[in-house]
Each structure stands twice: as structure tokens, then as C-alpha cells.
Amino acid sequence: xxxxxxxxxxxxxxxxxLKDGNNYLQELLDVVKESLxxxxxxxxxxxxxxxxxxxxxxEALIVEKATxxxxxxxxxxxxxxxxxxxxxxxxIIDIDNQVTILKEKLSLTKDEAPSIQRVCEKIADYxxxxxxxxxxxxxxxxxxxNSTFLPIVRNQQYHEITSGGIRTLTSVGYxxxxxxxxxxxxxxxxxxxxxxxxxxxxxxxTLKHNDTITESDKEEGISSNDKSKYIExxxxxxxxxxxxxxxxxxxxxxxxxxxxxxxxxxxIVKHFDDNGQESxxxxxxxxxx
Length: 289
Hints:
289 residues, mainly alpha, Rossmann fold, 3-stranded antiparallel β-sheet, two-stranded parallel sheet, 7% strand
């Protein structure tokens, strides 16, 4: 019991000692906490004082960056405009040069351009050659009217010609004369001529026509028994076609002159027949169902 009592006293003394040590440590901890709080406040204050200038500077730099970026975009846009203006200036110079050249060409063309009378005279010469080639009688006073630009034969206006055969030859010759003029002179002619039913009034058939005077046709040597002018006209077509490769002459006719049928065979592009026989195609106008 004495030993235990002594042991209890020693433990109580140790507990008191530990309490005193604990109190001391608590006081020391309070001191450290207080010191830590002071240091924390000091750190916050000093950090704020140190960081604030940098933040202000950073904000200023961000604003400056935005300003510079906008300036850069503006400069790039102005550079594009400047380049466009430079290209436009170049184009203006080129166009001015072209306009100058065109004015010079226009002036030269005006100086060299033939008069209407001169053009009509040249076309009349071609028409006279065609009528002569088709053996038209008493060929004289062939011209082109400077007002209507229609042909004149034997000093008769086109609408005054009473022979249907002569009207046909004059019409065909007039069309070909314009084509021939286009060969030798700059013009807007497409170099394409299409003629349909060229044999009308030229003795190709025995049919009577109301829009011609029979006596006039007889005087001209045009009858159902005389196809000479019709044949000569085809010969002229061949000669004209072989004289140049820069044009196209398309003639539509129901049949061909027998005397030159073999010669014309090489020029036939398409042959239509009533019944579609002998390797031909059935006609698609009158014969269509």
C-alpha cells in the first residue's frame, strides 16, 4: 500500500508537471499563432502592394494589345485598299491605252471606210457578174438603190421587175453578192447563206405562177423547156463554193438538174425521198403523217 501510494503521488506529480508543460506549450502556441497572424496580414499587405502595380501594368498592356491589334487590322485593310487602288490605277492606264488605240483605229477606219455608194457599186458589180453568168439577156444598168439597198436591173427597181424568173435570179444573185463582198472586206456577215426553192420561175416545172407575167418570162428566154439559167445558176454555186473555204452555202431544192446531177452529187449533204427508198430518208414536211 505504501508503495502504491508513493506511486500515485509520483503519477500525480508527473501529471501536474505535464499540465504545466501543456500550459507552457499552449501559451507558446498562442504566441506563435499571434505571430503567424501578424505575418499573414503583413504578407497580404505587402503582396497587395507588390502585385497591384503589376496588375495595373498588365491591364494597361492588355488595353494596348487590343489597341495595337485593331490598328493592325486597320492597317491591313488600308493596305488591301491601297493594292486595289494600285490595280485599278493600272487597269485605268491599260484602258486608257486601249481607248487611245481604238480611237486611232476608229479614225483610221473612218478615213478608209468606203462610202455607201462605193459599197453599193461593188455589190452591183458582183450582181452583174452573177446575172451575166446565168446568161440574162440585155444585161445593163445593174445597180443597188442607195436608199432601199435593193437591186436595180435594166434601170428597173426590184419591185418593178415583171418576170418571176429574173426576180429569182436577181434575189439569189443579190444575196450571193453580199456574201462575196464580205469575202473581200471586213464586215459582220456570218459567211453563211441558206437559200430555199431556187428553181422557182426558172423553167424547172410546168406549173403556172400567178405572181409572174408569162410574156416577160418568154422574152427572157425562161420556159419549162429551157432550164439553161437554172443549170448555170448551179454552176455558179459550185464555182463560188470552191473559191473560198471561209463560208457555207446551203441550198434546198426538190430535185437537181439532170445535166449536172453527177457533178452535184458530191455536194449533197442530205437527200429526202417521198417513200424513203434507195437509201434515202423520207421527207419530214409534206410527207409527215
